[in-house]
Amino acid sequence: MLYLFTQGFLAIKSTATVRASCLLVHKCRYIQLVHTQPSHLMRAKQQLSRRTCSVSDWAADLTIERNPVLKPKPEPSTLVFGKQFSDHMLTISWSAAGGWEAPQIKPFQNLSLHPASSALHYSIELFEGMKAFRGVDNRIRLFRPMLNMERMYRSTERSCLPLFDKDELIKCINKLIEVDQEWVPYSTDASLYIRPTFIGTEPSLGVSRAGHSLLFVIIGPVGPYFATGGFSPVSLLADPRYVRAWRGGVGEYKMGGNYGPTIAVQSEAARQGCQQVLWLYGENEEITEVGTMNLFIYWTTEKGEKELVTPPLDGVILPGVTRQSLLDLAREWGDFKVTERRVLMKELIDALDDGRILEVFGSGTACVVCPVGSLLYRGQTYQIPTMKNGPDLAKRFHKELTDIQYGRTQRDWAPVIV
Hints:
Blueprint: E1 2-5, E2 20-21, E3 30-35, H1 41-48, H2 58-61, E4 63-64, E5 88-95, E6 99-100, E7 104-107, H3 118-122, E8 125-127, E9 130-134, E10 140-142, H4 145-159, H5 166-179, E11 191-200, E12 212-222, E13 234-238, H6 263-271, E14 276-281, E15 286-290, E16 293-300, E17 306-310, H7 321-333, E18 337-340, E19 343-344, H8 345-354, E20 357-364, E21 368-377, E22 380-383, H9 392-405
Parallel strand pairs: 4-7, 13-14, 13-21, 17-18
Antiparallel strand pairs: 1-3, 2-3, 5-6, 5-7, 5-12, 8-11, 9-10, 9-11, 11-12, 14-15, 15-16, 15-19, 16-17, 16-20, 20-21, 21-22
Helix pairs in contact: 4-5
């Protein structure tokens, strides 16, 4: 595929030797040459003559191009997180001049981007993480998808990318899953991961709002997120020299720029024998997140009261869908105090020294609930008694959520889509 810059027109030219066709488009910025056989000339013209549509009509204007060659489906027991992808993808293009183009479900393929695309240089991009589950009744369900759409919408606003209709995007995603429904694992130990992504594709090195963008969704089957698998505890490195996010920044948005810089710290944690990073913030060493998960501490307060505490949504942590679900469940149960507040590292260490810690665990779409077994902080390793205590609460949360996701418990959090 070849792009040529022009300030004028797009010309049609077809010869038997080159067998190439172009579509005449008035005042277009690029020429796209599509090499094709004469019998495919009409199809090439149709592909280049893109339809525009209203953001509120995405589902009605959605087109589907089936992949003629389907890949074999992997066994659920062999799945590695984020390595396998389905046969199709969803794409929706936008430009300041033409608005939204009609959504397309088409064969899974590489993207063609201009080398100066703004996402490649200035991280004008964002993403989401969702899952679909094949239930015990063989029905396919999403889990609280509108919470993901609301979070993606907020990230879109912060990224200065064009806003979308949340309901319409969910309808298009549902259709993509329907097309690739055989990729949803026939297993209650696996699921279909859904990755909506929104990138700026403005072909300019200027640091400015993107005039072109691409929203796309890819999906694929996944097994356990962590190599430890199952319900094995992870070890954490807490090093106050490293900061993931800060107030007034973008830590509460799901942008790629929040994740890439953490890899070096994750590598340092591995070098010191730890599996994840406990992120601290500020001079008081506030506890924020663990790896890419939200953090929960279940302890006995100094007054002798059982309490589940998690950091608040004050701009430093990501508002996780699983986090919100655990808080909702805990408040429904009413068995212990539930608190969202800033927690200092000193409080955690003091509680460990006093023997008041019951369980510490992370939560997230990828891992659901992940127990924490130890903490390396300022050269000292602290054993966390999560597993010695069951972990009763973490397992209770895990069972309650997975029962909803796989249809063993009926709840409107998990709408049936296929």
